[in-house]
Design a protein that fits this description.
Helices cover 48% and strands 10% of the residues. It is an alpha+beta fold and 427 residues long. The longest helix is centred in the middle third of the chain and has 22 residues.
Length: 427
Amino acid sequence: MAHLPYKIEHTCVNKKKIFNDPVYGFITISSELIFDIIEHPYFQRLRRIKQLGLTDFVYPGALHTRFHHAMGAMHLMSITLDNLRSKGHEISHDEYEACQVAILLHDIGHGPFSHALEFSLLKGIRHEHISLQLMEYFNKAFNGQLSLAISIFTNQYERRFFHQLVSSQLDIDRLDYLQRDSLFTGVSEGTIGADRIIKMLDIKDDQIVVEEKGIYSVENFLSARRLMYWQVYLHKATVSAEKMLIMLIQRAKYLVSQGEQLFATPALQVFLIHDVSLQGIQENQEFLRAFASLDDTDIWAAVKIWSHHPDRILSALSCMLLERRLFRVILSNDKFEKRLVEELRQAISETYAIIPKDVKYFLACGSMSNAAYIAGGQNINILTKKGAVIDVAQASDLPNIKAMSKIVKKFYICWPKHIKIAKEVLS
């Protein structure tokens, strides 16, 4: 795939830019390196990837992008570092900039529709791994200026608290996305007091801690996160839309593997033809370049064309997505009985006149879990007035946090709504 080299030529440009963000107001670009990263086509691609994937099928206002989130997280990182400096902690200019870069690029490895296609277009690769590969690319493009940011991102830097700000159970990433997603979805229960939490952060023994007087803000943060997962991120209609999109891509990849010629943009074509692994991306820069030009528009363009394809499965799924005819979803605290699954398999096979092995494109079963806080490991630590550091879940007067540390698991099954089965099978 032909790809023009990117040249960094901004010598006459004013790089002290200001962005007007709907959540925080004005965001200032504090260094030329950050400006150049933001201007790079690989970062600009984030403007074309929605933060919440297909969640706008449920909440029409959820149209904000990964670009919004990255900029907002960088802004919150600046405020956090300024606060820590004000408490007497020494943070050098290089460390300050590296933390901003690390959080700015922490999600650059997301593919189309964010989490929706994370394991479909690529073979078992988490977006964090792609983020690291792209950060390594930027480091070469900018003559090693991202080395410290990469060290912080991978938790290799000697001052460990910096990594906790980028990735932990109370990190800058979560502080931004909860506020932002709450605003754009209109789900007010997700509102958190990020400003107060940031003001309460401190450092003790190279660990991020929260001053004791901020404990109720942390409780609100964890409660909001739990509610946002059930009401937004794991909303059953969102689950339905994402499963349909995954099935659609799987069908497209199958058809291509059988020699079928499908319309696709050059970038999408790469991932329909190849089962790209992390090792493949590390060894073949063409795969990384293709991924770095892939966004939501590649998928929607293909879906519109595929809706007229002679393959009935591909066209049916495409039309359903375009017209928002989502699968029916049932949630349960227990696994679904085999009788229900078999009944649905039979009904789908007969309705669409397809062979049993193709039923998988119209029937999805699985589970999803929600834990606002996982005790142990990377704790959220509270600094008491006596100078002791304790896990927030162990705070004696906060039983809610102990309850929220329990993992809640639900099972789901979804299939086309027009396919009916006996009510007694569902009960």
